[in-house]
Specification:
The complex is a heterodimer of chains A (about 450) and B (about 160). With about 450 residues, chain A is of the alpha/beta class. Chain A has 18 helices and eight strands. Chain A is globular, with a radius of gyration of 22 Å. Chain B is of the alpha+beta class and about 160 residues long. Helices cover about 45% and strands about 10% of the residues of chain B. A four-stranded mixed β-sheet of chain B has the order 2-1-3-4, with helices on one face. Chain B starts with 10 loop residues before the first helix and ends with a helix. Classes of the chains: A alpha/beta (about 450), B alpha+beta (about 160). The interface between A and B is large, with 58 and 48 residues. The complex binds flavin mononucleotide and FE2/S2 (inorganic) cluster.
């Protein structure tokens, strides 16, 4: 069900929305003040009740993650905010940084208190110059007001926030690669365990949260966790609140939109996204960033078992299932970053696959053999297919390579690179085979309209 | 090392370097921000910069080399006065990034990855720059240009090269 709201985005259209004065005039920093008057356990409890599933893609419950952080110990703890925003199709965190940076700083204060840290690093991809500038501006304003520094709101709980930048590597969005990069090294993911909550940044306990996740904290404290969770029609599945949705590709109104969780892909495409360009039909939609397997408009929910969480949508088009972490997972795809890429029938699925294969080949950090070799191999096969020189046997090989990367790498990049390939192969096998057989003349030969 | 180092930051950047070091519990963490700072000054990272950063961060030069070669934004060779990055990833490709790239190549008379003869412009392809809803897009130095038409690209290029 589509319920647009203006919560995270409430200041977006106000002039000078990035300034402290504007943020405070709409109640800004009251939630942080409130949090610092509560006990740490109470804060974590509210966040748990909020059922906020991580907005960075993996959908892990934020409160539970905070609960992993140690209560004592001789090492400092850190909060690290992931604003690497590199997943193709994803462009939501940037809007928060550019248009409401104080919300993020306030979230960092609440987050630091919740995880027992006194320092937060916001890891922003280097290319987002305006975002970095706005964040630094907000940090300086908040420091000048004493909201950051030794005694925020008069409470003896020092908090400082810094912006750290990457240097152009998608893999640094993966949280352990990000920590390596924060420490000044190559962004090569770490083996787990130890998990960041045990040993993260600088060998110390660390929580990594996505930027939108942390920006939701002021609202959670303000409304109360349970009220926040109940905004969502998937509250019953432990998937709470409102969130940012993006839609790009072949729609009339691409952009970032905020709504209560419960939005379906159909609503995202046709209501928020303004529908398909005239004269085109929907070919498929990649629900939440390029790593998520594609869904076709004729895909039907198959959940005859009353115990399945998808049962209430049994027999209906998959496009009409609310986008949630568990609903999408049960459909064999992912909610990811809830930034959808829409393909019309003007776009050739083989060229789309090829585009993504090139991306993953370029971005593999090369540490694990199956990923380093596999992504190269997949691209070479797709290169041949695109040139009209591929064979059906190679298509099977592509499937095998993708399957062999899955589960055999240190980090989830391997899955991220394979799942879209497997998704296209499952959903567009016939179109791809036709392409191979006709040397490409069955295809529109293009991606653009 | 040290005394023969031929790279130095200008005084303003020198101060910024101190500020960078103050943010982290150790010196190594300043490595990437410091490399950016140096690159801003001379547009690329040569061996002198690597030696400079290694000494300041108290790490082996091999470490800094490893970092420089890992991240795509560090220029390991001189580049043009301006850098144009054309995003070519799926959302942009769905909205005409290919055409846009070809247009830039034709206008500038170079392929992507190359620099114009006058040393003014380096043209490059980029992977998703988090502007997918405003596709197609290019980044010129530090500025995003979004929702581009070919006419708009011409205006941007005209302003850069001077007619
Ligand atoms: C290859 C790869 C890239 C990722 N990129 C990002 C990213 O750009 N931003 C982000 O927030 N999370 C990204 N993640 C997810 C992070 O590893 C991590 O789960 C997330 O930052 C945790 O925050 P959350 O629980 O609030 O979502 C990526 C993961 C992988 C495997
Ligand atoms: S695909 Fe070009 S900005 Fe995301």
């Amino acid at each position: 069900m589509l319920k647009p709201v203006k919560i995270l985005t409430k200041n977006y259209d106000t002039p000078d929305s990035h300034k402290l004065q504007v943020y405070q005039s709409s109640g800004g920093y009251e939630a942080a003040r409130k949090a610092l008057g509560m006990t740490r356990d109470q804060v974590v409890d509210e966040v748990k009740k909020a059922n906020l599933r991580g907005r960075g893609g993996a959908g892990f419950p934020m409160g539970v993650k905070w609960g992993f952080m140690p209560k004592d110990g001789d090492k400092p703890s850190y909060l690290v905010i992931n604003a690497d925003e590199g997943e193709p199709g994803t462009f939501k965190d940037r809007t928060l940084m550019e248009r409401d940076p104080h919300r993020i700083i306030e979230g960092c204060i609440i987050g630091c208190y919740g995880v027992g840290a006194h320092t937060a690093y916001i890891y922003v991809r280097h290319e987002l110059h305006l975002s970095k500038e706005r964040l630094w501006g907000a940090i300086h304003e908040a420091r000048a007001q004493g909201f950051l520094g030794p005694k925020p709101f008069g409470v003896d709980y020092p908090v400082d926030v810094f912006v750290h930048t990457g240097a152009g590597a998608y893999i640094c969005g993966e949280e352990t690669a990000l920590l390596e990069s924060l420490e000044g090294s190559r962004g090569e993911p770490r083996l787990r365990p130890p998990f960041p909550a045990q040993r993260g940044a600088f060998g110390c306990p660390t929580t990594v949260n996505n930027l939108e996740s942390i920006a939701s904290c002021p609202t959670i404290l303000e409304m109360g966790g349970e009220q926040f969770s109940k905004l969502s029609s998937l509250h019953k599945f432990g998937d709470g609140g409102c969130r940012l949705y993006g839609v790009s590709g072949h729609v009339n109104k691409p952009g970032v939109y905020e709504a209560c969780i419960g939005v379906t892909l159909r609503e995202l495409i046709y209501d928020l996204g303004g529908g398909m360009p005239e004269g085109t039909n929907l070919l498929g939609v990649i629900p939440g960033g390029s790593s998520c397997p594609i869904i076709r408009p004729d895909d039907i929910v198959d959940a005859p078992d009353p115990k399945s969480i998808l049962h209430e949508w049994h027999g209906k088009p998959q496009l009409d299932v609310p986008i949630g972490v568990d609903t999408m997972r049960n459909l064999g795809t992912m909610a990811g970053t809830t930034c959808a890429i829409v393909l019309s029938d003007r776009a050739c699925p083989v060229l789309a696959m090829h585009n993504l294969a090139r991306f993953y080949r370029h971005e593999s950090c090369g540490q694990c053999t199956p990923c380093r070799e596999g992504t190269g191999w997949m691209l070479r096969i797709l290169d041949k297919i695109v040139q009209g020189k591929g064979s059906i046997e190679e298509l099977d090989m592509l499937h095998e390579i993708a399957s062999n990367i899955m589960g055999n790498t240190i980090c989830a990049f391997g899955e991220g690179a394979s799942m879209p390939m497997l998704g296209f192969l499952r959903k567009f096998r016939k179109e791809i085979e036709d392409y191979i057989r006709t040397g490409g003349s069955s295809s529109t030969g293009r991606l653009a309209l | 090392m040290g005394s023969t180092m031929s790279f130095a930051l200008n005084p303003e950047r020198e101060r910024e370097m101190e500020d960078i070091f103050s943010r982290y519990p150790n010196k190594q963490a300043a490595c990437i921000p410091l490399l950016h700072l140096c690159q801003e000054q001379q547009r690329w990272v040569n061996d002198d910069v690597i030696a400079f950063v290694a000494e300041k961060c108290d790490v082996p030069t091999a470490h800094v080399k490893g970092v420089v070669t890992f991240y795509s934004l560090f220029n390991q060779a001189p580049v043009g006065e301006h850098e144009i990055w054309v995003c070519q990833t799926l959302s942009c490709a769905l909205r005409g990034a290919d055409k846009l790239l070809h247009h830039c190549e034709k206008r500038l008379g170079i392929h992507h990855g190359e620099t114009t003869k006058d040393g003014k412009i380096t043209l490059r392809v980029a992977e998703c720059l988090a502007a997918c809803g405003q596709a197609p897009m290019i980044m010129v130095d530090k500025t995003y240009h979004e929702n581009l038409s070919l006419e708009r690209v011409d205006e941007i290029l005209d302003a850069l090269v001077g007619k």
